[in-house]
Amino acid sequence: MNILALSLDQLTHLLEANHGKGRFHARALYREIFKNANPDLFSAPEFAASPNLARDLRKNICLEPGRITKVFQDKDLTKFITRLSDGLDIESVIVPMNRYNTLCVSSQVGCRMGCAFCETGGMGLKRNLTVCEITGQLYNARHILKKQIKNIVFMGMGEPFDNFESVMAAVQIMNEQKGFDIALRHMTISTAGVVPGIRKLAAMNLPGIRLAVSINAPDNPTRSKLMPVNNAWPLEKLKQTLAAFPLPRKGTFLLEYILIKGMNDSDAHADQLANFIHPLPVRLNLIPCNPVPGLAHESPSDEEMNRFSQKLVEKNIFVIRRWSKGRSVSAGCGQLGQQ
Ligand code: SF4
Fold it and tell me: Which atom of ligand 1 approaches the CA of 118 most closely?
């Protein structure tokens, strides 16, 4: 059993059921592995008096975060590839923020959403990641690459709500105070607009977890062209679902809008986008599209970005302009999957 797939409660139950021990030893194991990255899982003082227990556990519990096969660096941004046990690769990106780093994790190998601007979408879906393949990315970033990670964003390869159960189990493990200890308010789940997934997350009522939605077009025909998911859940349905989402007081949604020259960047698009947003509490990330081999989409100029952004600001939309990081190592938005 890979311990990276177990919540503290599950580990406690496992020790109770199989070894007649409980939370005391489970906490010790969790601390040694998740916090201290001690490769000798059972050398904690709590196991000194129980050598037989340590021996039995060693047979049943392992730590397998996946092997990092490549690391790419673009200034202070890092992208790393993890080889999974079946030989497939996934990509994760560590993005430097002011004092800490944000880890962008993958939730699937490939993706079946087929967004037109996205390299991962072009791969199709190979498979869902298991819980430990998701938490393993955090283990590797923190303990193998030695990066201080404070934020997690599910914006890597895949649509997180297409792998809902494993993603939420990973969120619980990453959040565990005795372990990785990432606060829910420092975790963001980003969806292409999978309405049933948004509803399921809403029903869980997890305090503070952030929801991001890729919008990318303010009208259904353009959005359906860019994001086929819009055919199943068009903008009206999406807006209705967001309006019903239980945000905390002063909470906001993060909307992402990838600007593509000549496709979704006109003044009329900005006006329609402002109408879509109103009255939802939103922070809007504007991102210039990244070049993806084989895809004809062109990035807008800085001037065009500024003009689009200004139009929205005039309508009281909170806009954050993202100048794409990591282009040279294909770690930018929509580029994962190129290696
Ligand atoms: S943008 Fe996200 S949801 Fe769309 S194809 Fe790419 S990985 Fe999938």
Answer: 6
Considering only the top CATH level, what class is 67-329?
alpha beta
Q: Where do the H-state alpha helices sit in 48-161?
A: 51-60, 119-123, 131-139
159 ligand 1 Cβ < 6 A = yes
Length of the chain: 339
Say if ligand 1 is within 6 A of residue 120 CB: yes
CB half-sphere exposure, 209, CA atoms < 13 A: 20
The model's pTM: 0.93
333 belongs to the catalytic site: yes
Q: What pLDDT does 338 receive? A: 53
Closest approach atom of ligand 1 to CA 158: 7
* Element containing residue 256 per DSSP (H, E): strand 253-259
Residue among 115, 132, 289, 333 flagged as catalytic: 333
- Residue spans of the domains in the chain: they are 3-60, 67-329
- Structure-token pair, residue 46: 């709590």
Q: How many CA within 13 A on the CB side of residue 335? A: 21
Q: For residue 25, how far is its CA from the centre of ligand 1 (angstroms)?
A: 41
For residue 45, what pLDDT is reported?
87
Measured CA to CA, the distance from residue 94 to residue 155 in angstroms comes to 11
Burial tier of 147 (Cβ tally within 10 Å: 0-12, 13-18, 19+): middle
